[in-house]
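Why run this: before we spend reagent on co-expression, it is cheaper to look at a predicted model of the complex and decide which construct boundaries make sense. The entries below are exactly what would go into the expression plan.
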Amino acid sequence: MRFKDVFSIIGPAMIGPSSSHTAGAVRIGRFARQLFGPLPERAEVRFFGSFAATYQGHGTDIAIAAGLLDWQTDDKRIPCALKHAADQGMTVLFGQGKGLYAHPNTVRLLLTAGAPPARRELALTGASIGGGNIEITDIDGFGVKLTGGYPAVIVQHRDAPGTIAGITDALRDGGCNIAHMSVDRKGRSGEALTALELDAPLAPPLLDQLSRLEQVGSVRCVDLSKISSA
Amino acid sequence: MQFRTLEQLAAQCTERSMTLGHYMLEQQSTESGRSPEQEFATMSAYYDIMREAVERGLTEDTTSRSGLTGRDAQRVMAFGAEQELSLGPAAGEAMAYALAVSEVNASMGRIIATPTAGSCGIIPGVFLSCQKRFGWSDEQMVYGLFAAGAIGYVIANNAFVSGAEGGCQAEVGSAIGMAAGALTELRGGTPAQAVHAVGLALKNSLGLICDPVGGLVEIPCIIRNGFGAVTALAAADMALAGVRSVIPSDEVIGVMLEVGSSMPEKHRETAQGGLAQTPTGRKIMRNLRRKPDPEES
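The model came back. Tokens follow.
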């Protein structure tokens, strides 16, 4: 069954006009923001396919900005998101992307903040696949497959034998069930990224334990069901 | 969920002497692992948002971002206050409420996707206008939403509810079927009658293409929501009067799948055919396209 429950039929609560062009775009922006951490100083947004053709009319640009502010799909401030972003010091630039894309509703985000050596960067690609559902397909050049439907943990690490076992062992010991996971690396013994979707959010002690594992660089969490603090 | 078809849904409800709404709440709670009280509260909050959208659409400026649509609900209400509506006041109000919610959606207001944003006006239009007319409690209406959800669940899993997949019949058509079945139950119809209402309603929207001008959820989506609410009332009346869907409702859903699957892509939410490609539709689309962002890389 493609639709599992009553709230996939009645719902979500959202700001219009389109579940794929608006609600889905908010969720992609929000995923990127939570992964990035602080408010980005600059966000470059590149639209592809049908997103590129109709983003202004549908308010997809506004929806992405709302997501970057970590707002929910039904936040009443969404129509004013661009103003809020400017007021808070985030520069958001929109344009048409170039090159190939897998889904007609694809967006690529490049978020930056700070100056070297403390400069923070994130490149993320996502697609809005209908009814407010999304798929994150690329994080910093690593291929992933994340839905935002579950709490996600993104672990950056070196490609070395036993690293993934270390991660899954820690999750097992913490009683965490993995719903989905994907692994990608830049090259043998190089940088790698493991993205996991869990049945429940990661408790802080477990998060700490994961980040202290050998070969592990950073551990970041995204939970789109979390109530926005904004 | 223990049911896959409307026939099974009606049979299981009849066997347990339960309404579709009560049965769906029980099934939902089993599926999610959350208490029925919690699930009821979520749906109840959704109903409040629907009511708020109706009120906004009737009182506030609903001009869309494109400037193409807005305030049609208010036009209908004003006309109805001055002269007698051909539909009569009750159906006219359902139509106006449905337009109101759809216009709120088009102007970036808050709505509940039922089953999608493009068809978000029909259920609130029928529910809110009938609640006022028949004096039903909020609790009854929330159970009604669970009934509508049960019907939509069957349609979505056996056919589709998105215009990109199955045309407008899948969005507006499904919403009409859901509203008609739920209204039949709210008015005291049996589960079997509610299911007949779904089939009667769906038959009237088979083949409806999705051809939004400029790709926007505005023209003709908004007026189709208005018409949809009226059709739902008519289908419920037929079912309550004992009119049966001779072709069983599950088979009608099968036809929707067949018709939608063979619909050309230009008639499935791509704005490449239908009303979107009329001379006027094309002109509107050209005017919508502003200069590309200078930051383009």
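Chain B touches chain A through 60 residues (CB under 8 Å). The beta strands of chain B are 110-112. Bring this page to Monday's planning discussion.
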